[in-house]
Amino acid sequence: MREIPLNIQLSALPTSPGVYQFYDSTNSILYVGKAKNLKKRVSSYFNKNHEYGKTRVLVKKIRTIKHIVVPTESDALLLENNLIKELKPRYNVLLKDDKSYPWLCLKNERFPRFFPTRRVIKDGSEYFGPYTSMKTVRVLLDLIKSVYPLRTCNYDLSADKINSGKYKVCLEYHLGNCKGPCEGYQSIVEYDRQIADIREIVKGNFKSSITYFKSQMKALAQEMKFEEAQEIKDKIDVLENYQVKSTIVNPKISNVDVFSIISDNALAYVNFLQLAHGSIIRSHTMEIKKKLEEKDEDLLELAIVEIRNRFKSDSKELYVPFNVAVSPGLKVTVPKLGDKKRILDLSERNAKFFRQERFNQIKIIDPDRHTNRIMAQMKKDIRLSAEPRHIECFDNSNIQGSNPVAACVVFRDGKPSKKEYRHYNIKTVTGPDDFASMEEVVYRRYKRLQEEMQPLPQLIVIDGGKGQLSSALKSLDLLGLRGKIAIIGIAKRLEEIYFPEDPIPLYLDKKSESLKIIQYLRNEAHRFGITFHRNKRSKGAISSELVGINGVGEKTAQQLLKKFKSVKRIKEATLESLSEEIGVSKAKKIYESFRKE
C-alpha cells in the first residue's frame, strides 16, 4: 500500500479523545501520546515551530500516524501509560519506568483490609482501578471509611487468635472508626456484608448505598441534626457524580483478544485489541477487499487467523460480536453486558473511526472512487435498479395557503447542482393543499423535461410521507413515467423512507451515508423553497403598502420598487425623482401620503 501524505492523514483524524502513535519510514514506533481531541493535538505538532530540537527531529521523522479512540480523557491517560510500558517508544521519556497508577486493594484475608497501593500482587486479593490520580483514591477511601468502619491494623485475625484474647482494641475503636473485630465485637458475617456493599460502590453500583444514605439523611433531619444530615448529603453528591469504571483496564480481564468487524459492499474493516494483565497493549485495524459477497462471519474468521499469526498472539480467549469457528482450544465469548461488552464496543468504535478515516482520505486522494462507493451504497440501501447519479427533491412552502410555492433541487453524484435548482409558483391550487400542490409541481417539472427531451433523474425524493408520495405518483402516471423513475418519500418525524404501494416504511441507519444524502436533499429543498416563499411574501407586503395609497396600482408599485429597491427609499425620495419615474400626478399623491405619516 502506497504511503499516504501526512496532511491527508491529519485531515482524516477524529476529534474524539484517544491515544496517537507516530511511526517512522521503517514502521518503527517513535512516540505515544494522549489527547482530549486527537485531530487538534496531533495537528499542533505540524502547525508551529518547536522550541526544543528533540521535538523538531521527531516531527521530521514522522511518516505514519495511528490512533486508538477511547470514551474519555481519563481512559486515554491510562491507555497511554500501558502502551508506553509495552512499546517503549524512543521519544517517550516519561512513564517508561516501573511506576504505575494507584489501585485499591481488598486484601485476601479474614476481615479484609481496604487500602491504596501501586503494586499488584497475585495473592488472591481483589484490585480495583487503576485510577488517574491519588486524590481520587483518597476521596473514595474517605467516603467508604466514613460510612463503613473497617479495620486498618495488619493483625492476623484468625478465629483461634481472637478467641484466645491475643489482641486488644486500639484507638481507632474508641474513635468509632472500627467496630473491634480483633476482640470479637464485630462478627465476620456483619463485616463481610460491609465488604459486599463496598465492592458495589467501587464497581460503580451506588443504588443501594444511596438509598440507605437518603433514609439516614431524612432521619437526621427529623431529629434536627442538620449538620450531620448535610455531611450525609455531601456523601450522596459524591456518589452520584462519581465515575469509577474504566473500559480501558479491568484486572479481571486478561490474556484476551478482541475482534470486531464493520463492512459495506466492497470493503470490511476488522479491529483487533489485545489485552494482557488487564490492560490493552495493542490495537490494529485491517482493511479487507471483498471479491464476492462474502459474509461478515467468513471474513472475521479469516482475519482472526491472519492477525493472530501476524502478532504471534497466544491468548486463549476471544471476544467477538457473533459466534465464529476457530481453532480447538480457543474459548469464544460473545459479550452481552458489562465490561466485556464495553471492550467489544470500544473495538467496534475503533473500526468505525478507521473506516471513516479511510473514506476521508479517499475523498481527498480519489474523489471519483469516493463517489462511486456512495452511489453503489445508495443503490443497495434504497433498493434501486440503477445508481442514483441524478436525484431531484421537491418541497412545498406556504403559510395558511398564502403565497404557495414549491422548490425542486437537483443533486449530481451526491452533490448539489445549484444552477439546476428551480422555483415554482403554485397556479392551480387554492388554499393550503400540500397534496394538490405536489401533484401540480411534479407534473409541470417532468412535462417540461419530456418536451425539451432532457434526461430524467434516476431517483425522485418527495419531502413528506405517504400522502405527498401518492400525489406525486399521480403526476408520473399521467405522464407515463410510472416505473421509469424511482420515487421515494421521506417523513420528517422518524426519517422513514416510504416506497410506492408499500405500507411499511424503511428505516435506514441514522449514521448511514445514504440517509445523510437524502436528508441533505430534503434540507436543501426546504431551505431553497422557504427562502423563495419569504421573499415573495415580503415583496407582497411591500407592494400592498404602496397599493394602499389612493390612485396607486400594482403596476406603479412594482415600477417604483424596481427603481428604488425598497419602500424606505421611496419615502425618502424627492418629488422630482418620483415624478421622473411615474409622472407628476401620481408622484404628488405618494409624496404627500408619506409626508402625512
Question: What is shown here, in short?
Answer:
This protein folds into 5 domains: 6-87, GIY-YIG endonuclease; 139-246, no CATH class; 256-363, Alpha-Beta Plaits, CATH 3.30.70; 374-529, UvrC, RNAse H endonuclease domain (Nucleotidyltransferase, domain 5, 2-Layer Sandwich); 549-594, no CATH class. Helix content is 45%, strand content 18%. It contains 20 helices and 19 strands.
What descriptors fit this protein?
eight-stranded mixed β-sheet; DNA damage; 597 residues; alpha+beta; SOS response; Alpha-Beta Plaits; GIY-YIG_endonuc; 18% strand; 45% helix; cytoplasm; GIY-YIG endonuclease
Q: What layout of secondary structure does this protein have?
A:
Blueprint: H1 6-11, E1 18-23, E2 29-35, H2 38-44, H3 53-61, E3 64-69, H4 73-87, E4 103-106, E5 114-117, E6 126-128, H5 134-147, H6 159-163, H7 171-174, H8 188-203, H9 207-222, H10 226-241, E7 256-263, E8 267-276, E9 279-289, H11 296-310, E10 317-319, E11 331-333, H12 338-365, H13 367-381, E12 390-399, E13 402-412, E14 415-416, E15 422-425, H14 434-451, E16 459-463, H15 466-478, E17 486-490, E18 497-499, E19 502-506, H16 513-547, H17 554-564, H18 567-572, H19 575-582, H20 584-596
Parallel strand pairs: 7-10, 10-11, 12-16, 16-17
Antiparallel strand pairs: 1-2, 1-3, 4-5, 4-6, 7-8, 8-9, 12-13, 13-14, 13-15, 17-18, 18-19
